[in-house]
Structures are given as structure tokens and as C-alpha cells.
Amino acid sequence: MRQKHLFVLVSVAILLALPLGAANENINYADINKIKAEGMQRSQVMELNSWLADVYTPRLTGSPMAEKAANWVVGKLKEWGLVNAKLEPWVNRNGFDRGWTNDKFYMAAVTPERFPIPGTPTGWTPGTNGLQSGEVVLVTAATAEDLAQYKGKLKGKWVMTQAVPDVAAYWDPPAKRFTAEQLQAMEMATPPQPEFGVTPPGGGRQAGPGTPAAPGRQGGPGAPAPGQQAAQQGQRAGAPGAPQQPAAAGGRGGQGAANARNEFFRTEGVLGTISTAPRGHGIYTIGGNRAADPATTLPAVVIAAEQYGRIGRMLAKNIAVTIEADIKNTYYPNPPVFNVVGEIPGTDKADEIVLLGAHLDTWHAATGAADDGNGVAAMMEAVRILKATGVKLRRTVRVGFWEAEEQGLIGSREYVAMHFASRQPAPGAAGAPPAGGGGGGRGGPQGPLQLKPDYDKLSVYFNIDNGTGALRGIYLQGNDAVAPIFREWMEPFRSLGMTTITIRNTGGTDHQSFDAVGLPGFQFIQDAVEYNTIVHHTNLDTYERLQPRDNVQMATIVAGWAYLAANRDEKLPRKPMPATPPTRPTTQAELR
Predict the structure, then answer these.
(1) In order of start, what are the domains of the chain with their CATH numbers?
(2) Nearest to 460 by CA among 382, 560, 352, 339
């Protein structure tokens, strides 16, 4: 009798231990253990991170350093034995008619007292043509009517473009990890899903439970404290506290108003504009507009709230403040624009592809260590692990490193459009991407897909672009069919902290270029650490913000998942296609 009860209890325990919706995946634990040993015990990921964060950086798309870094990556891939490692030019320039670098920055107050002013020029704005000195004036007026009062009064002055911000204290620790309860809540949550291939309003990544998400980024623990979230919105033109950046010609709404104001400043003879971010603590965000015309654009500088506030409060006391600046920025006409690719050939399914990716480009206020240098390093380390272990790969494992993610997922959209499919906006839709664009995550009505011959060959795309945090699980992007597969794939890595699957979507990075055309593209759930509070697009995104153990873990897991995807009998399932049927090319001209 006791034996029978024991048998029943054991049977129930086994059933409860099985992943829900078991997919019966064939997992070769001998090979997985080789991958884990190589990745966890002999990792090179932090050395790769150092090269990317200390030497080949910053990598603003179109800059000479972007090309140098790309060539270094190609060299490492070839050194490890990958094939077809190369720079792959885009078909369309996507508005990158000028590369840009900041070569010198000096700014300081000289009266009534001398003090340094750390800062960074906004991307694609001109320099000062030598040392320029002038008084500071605060101008928050935005409309032509309000600006009229300043006519004839701004020549030779530096203009502060926003009110002095309030700076919130860090009442909560700026670095956090997901708790078990938060991960469980994410797994159970099933919020409404957006239309296939269309990003929710704001384009933000899916937030963790009960936390505000920074624009375009994953939320969860470490989401912004009051004042910090507004700072992160500084990448949106016209946002409160945003660095005031000239927008492309023809801008609408707030961008058009900002253009008009900057043109007023230029015609009045202003030396340059100064803006800040309300997060304080010496941290500020940076951005830039590649379409800015240097002939009609002013020097624009972003500084920390502490110096901005000091100057603003002195002006409020009717104390004149004079600053001097020497800023040298260089433009590079028609720079090369490209992605970086390389691959490990498969065996019996070599024509099918498992693709790993991250974005190589950075902003320029820091070195882009967490956004997204460590994603690139992790994917490089993943393919190094696969080569070093010599595990068999049935499918070809390819890596892709994208340029211009920061300007709208452009590099990955170009790659998807060239190799897999393009989705053009519906006729007459506003905000159309350039011809050939993959439409990765762009909102608005979408037209039919134009499929390329390799469309049916991609099994899966995995992306890393949420900072240094450890991988804790994966977003399903509304693809229920992969859930039981991913549950079983997580089992060998559960001891490394990989435990959670959520049906939620996440946005704001390159997996959307694949998802938007019906391809399985996934971003991992990552601990936020300091990503939203300190790092994202700021002057503190440096090597020091990286967590070595987390980077080792993420590269090891990606290598394991690439191995599992490459060796399963079938490609990963795809979620249902949209109602509009795709069209297949029939001529070589259409294929191009």
C-alpha cells in the first residue's frame, strides 16, 4: 500500500516537474556542458568589451571610428574561423549624407567666477570655429510671437533653452534586479497585444510588473525615479528637459517649432545653444539629427543639470554670466554605411540560418559600453564559444552587427529588406521609411510584404540590447508556439538564472525589424541593473557600468540557444501572418 502511494506521489511529482506544454526537444547535454564550461570558465567577453568600450569607440554611424570598429570585428571573426566575415553596405543611405565626429570640447564660465562646464555637443551640429566668449541668456520662449521680444538682443550670446529643472534624489537604489515575484508576474501577464508588426504607441519596450518603462527600453527593476524618466525622454525632440536638437526639414509639431526657434536664434547671431537633462548627478543624455545641415545649424551643447542650474540661478539674480567655449566638430561627406556579418557554416541544413545580433553603433557622450557594446561582445563571444568547443551545428549560425539602431533600427531594417523581406507602408501612409526598408517596428498602416528567397530559410533571430544585465528569460513577441520549446531550452540554464517566459512584446530594438515581416525575432529579458537610471544614452555609458558575471552568463546562454536552434529537426514556428497576403518577387529586378 505504501509502495502504491509512493508510486503515485513520484508520478505526480514528475508530471509537475515537466515544463508546461512539453515540446520533447532533443537536448544533447554533453554538448551543452561543453558550451557552459567554455563560456563560464574560459570567457573572453570582458576583453572583447574592453576593446569595444575603450579602444574602438565612440561609434556614431558614419564616423571613421564606426568603420575602424567594424573592421576590427571582422578581423576577430576571421581569427576564430568564421567565414564570409565582411562589411555589407546598405542599399539605401537612409539620410546619412554626412558622418560626424566631435574632436575637441572645452567650455567654462569665466565671469563672475571661473568654473568648468563638462558637456557634449549634440550630434551633427557644427563647432565654434575657435574660442568664442559671450554672455548667457535664458530663453524658454517657443512661439514666433514670444520670441519677438528678443529680436536684436541675442547677438554674440549663448542661449540656455529651457528652465532650470528640479533634480530628484535617488531615493531608491539605481541598480536593481528582477525579483522572483516580478518574474513570476511577467510570466503570467497577458496584456493586449498590438497588431502584427506594429509597435505600441511610444515604441517602448515592455515594462516589468508595476514599473514605468523608459521610452524605447525595457522597464522592470531600476526603472526611473521621478525626474529620471523625463531625462530619458530627452531623445524625443521637444520633450520637457530634452536636449534641443534641430530636426530634419519638414518636421511637424514640436519638431517644427524647435526648427523655427533655432532658425530665429541663428539669424539673430547666437553663438550656440545649451540644454540639459533633469536627472542631475552629473548625468545627461545625448542625441543628434543626421539630417541637420551645418550651414543652417547652430553649435548645440548638452551639459549636466548641476552646472546648468548654477548658471540659471545666477541669471535669476540678475548676475551676468559669461562663458567661453572651443568646440571642434568634423563632417565627413558620404561616409560608408553598412552592417557587419560572419557565419559558422552548418552541415546537413547549412542553407538554413540561426542569426544572432546586436547593434554596433553608439552615441558619442560616452563609449556605448552597455548600449550596445556588451551586446556585440556577447554575440561575438557566443560564436567564439561554438567554434572553440567544436560542437556540431546542422544549421548555419550567423552573426549580424547593425549600424544606426539609434536612428531607428536602420541597419537591421536594411539587412532584413535585402535578405528576407520588406514591408512598405500602405499607399499614402505618413512616416514611410525609405524604399527597401524593412519597416522594423514602424507604426502606421502597412502594405504587403515583398518576400526574398531567403525568407523561408531563417529559423530564428536572437538579439541583445538591454544593457549589462543577466539574461532572465525571453519575450515571446506574441508567438505562443515557441513557448514549450523555449521552456525546455531554459532547463540547462536554469542554474544560471534563466527561468522566465512571457507572452509580452518588447520593443525599441533590432528584433523588431524581423518581427515586423513575420520572422521569429526575440529579445531576452534582462536585469535592468543601472540601464534606465544611469546608462541609457548618457555620458556614463562606459566600461565601468558593465557587470562581468552578467556578461559571461549572457554570452554562454546565447551560445547554448544558438546551438539548440541550429540542431533541432525543424525551424522554429512562426506566428500567424497578417491578413494582407505577401507577394513574392518574380524577376531579378524585383529581387534587388
Answers:
(1) 21-96+336-423+432-591 (3.40.630.10), 101-167+229-330 (3.50.30.30)
(2) 352
